[in-house]
Amino acid sequence: MPMTFTKRKMSMPLLLILILPTFAVAQDPVRILPAGQLPDDARLAPPKDLDGYFPFSPPESKEAWQVRAEEVRTQLKVALGLWPMPPKSDLNLERVNVQKFDRYQVTGVRFESMPGFYVTGSLYEPVGKDGPFPAVLCPHGHWTNGRFYEANDGEIKKQIESGAESIAETAKNPMQARCVHLARMGCVVLQVDMLGYADSQQLSFELVHRFGKQRPEMNTNQRWGFFSPQAESHLESVMGLQIWNCIRSLDLLESLESVDKSRLAVTGASGGATQTMIVGAIDPRIAAVFPAVMVSTAMQGGCTCENCTLLRVGTGNVEFAALFAPKPQGLTAADDWTKEVETKGFPDLKRLYALMGAEDKVHLTARTEFGHNYNAVSRRAMYELFNDALGLNASVEERPYKRLTEKELTVWVGRNQPEYSEEFERDLLAEWTVLSEQQINSLLSGDETAFAKFREITEPALDVMVGRNSPTMDDLEFDVKIKEQREDYLLIGGLLHNDQNGSQLPALFLYPKDNWSGQTVLWLSDKGKDGLFAENGRLKSEVAKLVSSGVSVAGIDLIYQGEFLANEQTFEQAPKVENPREAAAYTLGYNRAVAAERINDIAAMATFMRNHERAPKSVGLITFDPAMAGLASVVMAKDSKAFDFAAIKTDGFRFGKVDSIRSPNLLPGGAKYGDVPAYLAMAAPIPLRVMGEDAESLKWVSHAYEKKNQADRLSLTEDIDVTPIDWVLGQLSRFQ
């Protein structure tokens, strides 16, 4: 859209300023809005948290859903650190303590989802029947001691009297009862421990499920721990690891000769339902799922093991469940956060199934007279769904069984149980990082085909990290508030409106007085548009040189810069939700990071400048602030045509070295895909001058330019003596 001019009456003081020589007057900072007034930017609203409202709106067509489903499925994989999927190492399955009963047997199992990291659980198998059998994975939720759970006598009595249970032994351990009956129905069942529960103690319960305080000693640039800014930058989370354990558990079930690979199912309740719906959404091998008492438009999951950065930005659990359509799925509701799902969420889910021609494949058992549960009533609904979906034709009536104790269930018989240590935590994440880097680095240093594969991975990841849709000129409008002719340039100031995200950005344009060449530059600064000016209010010498050479220069207040800050505040900590626990996922699992929003602001400004009615010949970028250079690198990676040339001073800035989860520079995932050097490689072959790096640190960038036979377009500080501004001026002849 064109600029919109707002008439302003020129005051006598302003008139005097314009008359007097500029060298004699110290200018005040240029404000677009009245002092004390903040931009009317939708992103300044309080951040969304896990207790918000997360509706799902089915699309109008199957084709539209297929596009949306792929986007959300990719978002899940990226957020979980599973994009691309890590390489699968040997499971090294060990069986211990086989116990046989009427029509089924139970075996303790332990196997490695990553080298040296164990998944532990119990394997229930039919006896006296011929296979192959369907297989059911049973992750559990936050019931005390998990697989070793034992209800006390008072709780058992309460469950039986309420009608929730009918057999004392099943009431004492409903999770074990579920596995036994599925085995009696003719299923191979694998019940696995959540991290920090029962036999899984390599990561502690307190770390995985009760983390609340940042640990400075684990927030290091090498060998970091979970929940650190470094882990967030690499997308390494306990939730991602837990889902990876589920995927490897399905691998184990598939590896068994007795299992029919075409009939895999997953069911769990509460936190186990979170695992069920997530793995169901991203693993195509699963034929049926039954996530109990979890899916709703309300609370999305309160534990750190159910949250990770990027996960629910613009989406939520009902849409995650929808990703399983059109395959059979059952849900339950109880007197908890799911109590309204029958009217809020499930009707939309059912409409989506109807759109897919499978309205009869999704079911809800709403028994809100019961509290949070996976009781006999809910289990019966699950047995009925699996009976049909897996072709079992078996009785759904539970019968008494021999409940096994912790001593009988443990998988560490005759072997010391591995325990948690910070050193092991560091080792595990170091291994995860190495595996990821091996996947990415080999593509960055490879041939054109390898680099194309890198783009195929990284471009969708950046869409998740920053936002998928870049603004068009139809989204943008510049409302001019100031137009002043100064001695050497015309100053135009106003507000850049972006309808796509509701942003409103104060911006300045400096036009040469008489000799505009048609060349434009965006000047990025950590001070926002004030970075165009020296302390005395006059143009910085570098900016003045550009303007006097016929280049127009623009500056902008990105969100939380300049006029976004009242009373000369500084901005050192990003907003957070009220949750007191210091895990970034509670905020950044539901809201974009400040760094991501700033990247979008830069992209919006670049779009406006390029498509401005004055039709510039080129749009360049200059920044001498390392963090701004890092953000700009992502803009150029997402759109290599955003700028025609760039001169940036990175000084070794890396997203992977951001040292606080509250830092405005924290970009979840920013380090996983090669960090700033990889993003600059994606910008090739635009003319690029990089300061504060050397040939080794930018080897991928050099490699990218060389592959395009454009090595002369890349300049490092150590290569040339020309000043950055003179280098920029020297590039303009390319764009006449």
Helix content: 25-40%
The second-level CATH architecture of the largest domain is 3-Layer(aba) Sandwich
- Domains (count): 2
Widest β-sheet, arrangement of strands: 1-11-12-13-15-14-16-17-18-19
Give the CATH H-level superfamily of the largest domain. Alpha/Beta hydrolase fold, catalytic domain
End-to-end C-alpha gap:
25 Å
Strand content: 15-25%
Care to describe what's here?
32% of the residues lie in helices and 18% in strands. Helix 16 (541-548) links the parallel strand 14 and strand 15 (551-556). The protein folds into two domains: 3-30 and 465-735, Alpha/Beta hydrolase fold, catalytic domain (Rossmann fold); 63-436, 3-Layer(aba) Sandwich (Rossmann fold). The chain has 736 residues and is an alpha/beta fold.
Summarize the structure.
This protein is α/β, with parallel strands linked by helices and about 725 residues long.
Fill in the keyword field for this structure.
Rossmann fold, 10-stranded mixed beta sheet, disordered N terminus, 736 residues, alpha/beta, single chain, elongated, 18% strand, 22 helices, 32% helix, 7-stranded mixed beta sheet
